[in-house]
Design a protein that fits this description.
Length: 374
């Protein structure tokens, strides 16, 4: 079947690198005489009787690679468990057939879906139902399986590292513990590597429940030493991922509501930790949650390059008719290899921090070795 018209959508949280990927899809498709349609607001845009779309061309997207976020919008809509207008919030039904119907209504020969575990999980299920879907990986958490890189990670890591480094200045001036909460529901990649780059004293991640007694012992050792000898620091910066939890404890959430994929909105573990430090010690502690700005702003050169490469590969996958496949990266641009892996495998298991190799569970920080065990 000749490919004449394709759609592109972005789902889940926005991330730097989405607009570069969209631009690359449009340019590569145009090389083959294929028109591209932007689907507004992720899977939500393919529900209902009148999908909202944007006809994209090279002139329209020519500067998009320099801009953050996603110009075609995003949502956390799950067509397989979606709310129905006019009914109670808990009333959800399978509306996936509407998505397939609207692909036909729009005359789309293929769809490039850019997202993380949830967005691409929907893509995998739609592909099983016969929908011509190809996936591109995006998540600042870097927790998507079968790929070394997901769009947004590098930019977000740089933003977090800069704030972590800046946090040391007021903490040092006032001799307090500064707790910095960053994103990371299941995986601690963003917290661990931005903490290392930003010079944090300690980093707490979801993969390793932390022992408060151990946390306090390490803080007491550092701050007491600084009190005795002014050559040593009398402050500490502690980075904590939003999904981290103490031993025997649970994640801290903003409220009890869940999205259509069953996730609660996490947040507040940093404030909880700062409260505990104040209760258990003479040290003052302050907390800051970086929130959504950590994934805002213009994409870094790495995310622009990876968006460019992912977009090209996505269109090439469409031309091959590789439905139900995701573009996977081994390495990071410019030294990376791209391949196709089944969407179903990419979302089957999460890419978590390799604790034995990369995390020192005694020090709660990045392990100080680089080679795998002999």
């Amino acid at each position: 079947m000749a490919i004449k018209r394709i759609g592109v959508l972005t789902g889940g949280g926005d991330a730097p690198g989405l607009n570069p990927a969209i631009k690359s899809v449009v340019f590569k498709a145009a090389e083959h005489g294929i028109s591209t349609v932007g689907i507004y607001d992720g899977w939500q845009g393919l529900l209902g009787d009148s999908p909202e779309v944007w006809e994209l061309d090279e002139l329209t997207v020519r500067r998009w690679d320099r801009e953050g976020g996603t110009h075609i919008g995003s949502s956390r809509t799950n067509p397989f468990s979606s709310k129905v207008g006019g009914q109670k919030p808990e009333a959800k039904i399978d509306r996936s057939d509407e998505v397939i119907l609207n692909l036909r209504r729009l005359g789309l020969d293929a769809l490039v879906a850019i997202g993380g575990e949830d967005t691409l999980g929907v893509g995998a299920r739609l592909a099983k139902k016969g929908a011509p879907v190809v996936g591109l990986p995006k998540t600042i958490d870097k927790d998507l399986g079968r790929t070394d890189y997901s769009l947004g990670f590098d930019t977000s890591m740089r933003v977090c590292a800069e704030i972590i480094e800046r946090s040391a200045t007021p903490a040092g001036s006032h001799h307090w513990v500064q707790v910095v909460e960053v994103m990371g529901r299941h995986a601690g990649h963003l917290a661990l590597w931005s903490g290392l780059a930003g010079g944090a004293f300690m980093t707490l991640i979801p993969e390793c429940p932390f022992d408060m007694a151990r946390v306090m012992a390490r803080l007491d050792e550092r701050l007491a030493r600084g009190s005795r000898d002014r050559r040593f620091p009398r402050y500490a910066v502690v980075v904590i991922a939003e999904g981290a939890a103490p031993v025997g404890g649970t994640e801290v959430s903003v409220d009890a509501k869940k999205d259509e994929f069953g996730h609660m909105r996490l947040g507040g573990i940093g404030g909880w930790l700062a409260d505990e430090i104040r209760k258990r010690s003479p040290w003052d502690a302050r907390a800051v949650a970086l929130g959504h700005p950590q994934r805002g702003g213009a994409p870094s050169p790495i995310d622009r390059l990876m968006g460019h490469l992912f977009g090209i590969a996505g269109v090439e996958a469409v031309l091959r008719g590789a439905w139900g496949q995701m573009v996977s990266a081994r390495g990071i641009a410019p030294a990376c290899d791209l391949a196709l892996v089944p969407l179903e495998e990419a979302v089957k298991s999460l890419n978590l921090v390799d604790v034995p190799r990369h995390y020192d569970t005694e020090r709660y920080c990045a392990a100080r070795h680089a080679l795998p065990p002999a």
